[in-house]
């Protein structure tokens, strides 16, 4: 709640934000900015709050849309997105519309930001972060996918936090993150606050996102609380690549 309060104050102080909402305050809040030339922001103030007590890495997710609308829009309509990671070194991945590369910066001891690198490619790599594994109980295709990763000797890298799991894909430029649903394990990840902003970062880093049917950037946000399943990873271009035959292609929204 403290992170939520600080971020709302910062957005109001910016004087360019018209509306904002967060996972903690999911109703639109008027930030006083202009409609014309202004922006609306959706954010998750502290992703991974359930793992704070265990001292795992947590972070913040931002999505920025033009004007005064956060419904009736898609993830592809975003003009900017960012992901902050609060680990042994604080990092910020950010993207502005018109720039092709995903930028990353690190905050120094004196409070200044230092540019680290641009990420333009996410390759194949045997590293996986499987969220919502309880869905394997009654989603046979997800169960087959997990078996596939194990049999192919993929390395498990899963923290229980979406930010650190997606962060490692971007930093290591390889791997896959999945959070699949089933009839008894319903979707928990919100499209507006998490999935769409991170989808924009991943796709502009040279990767791909999917809800089982299409890119998450093509999904229309109908309600602020819309939820979805998602996978982030590389963009397979070779038609004969062995992963094109993997069970991932068969997973659909339950």
UniProtKB/TrEMBL annotation:
UniProt KW keywords: Calvin cycle, Carbohydrate metabolism, Chloroplast, Disulfide bond, Hydrolase, Magnesium, Metal-binding, Plastid, Transit peptide
Entry annotated with the keyword S-adenosyl-L-methionine: no
Reaction catalyzed: D-sedoheptulose 1,7-bisphosphate + H2O = D-sedoheptulose 7-phosphate + phosphate
GO molecular function: fructose 1,6-bisphosphate 1-phosphatase activity; metal ion binding; sedoheptulose-bisphosphatase activity
Region (Disordered): 235-254
Domain (Fructose-1-6-bisphosphatase class I N-terminal): residue spans on this chain: 1-118
Domain of life: Eukaryota
Main subcellular location: plastid
A single GO BP: fructose 6-phosphate metabolic process
Enzyme Commission numbers on file: 3.1.3.37
InterPro entries tied to this protein: FBPase_C_dom (IPR044015), FBPase_class-1 (IPR000146), FBPase_N (IPR033391), SBPase (IPR023079)
Compartment(s) of residence: Plastid, Chloroplast
Listed Pfam families: FBPase (PF00316), FBPase_C (PF18913)
Entry cofactors: Mg(2+)
Pathway terms, separated by semicolons: Carbohydrate biosynthesis; Calvin cycle
Fructose-1-6-bisphosphatase class 1 C-terminal domain sequence ranges: 124-235
Cellular component GO terms, alphabetical: chloroplast
SUBUNIT field: Homodimer.
Family label: Belongs to the FBPase class 1 family.
Name this polypeptide is given: Sedoheptulose-1,7-bisphosphatase, chloroplastic
Organism: Raphanus sativus (Radish)
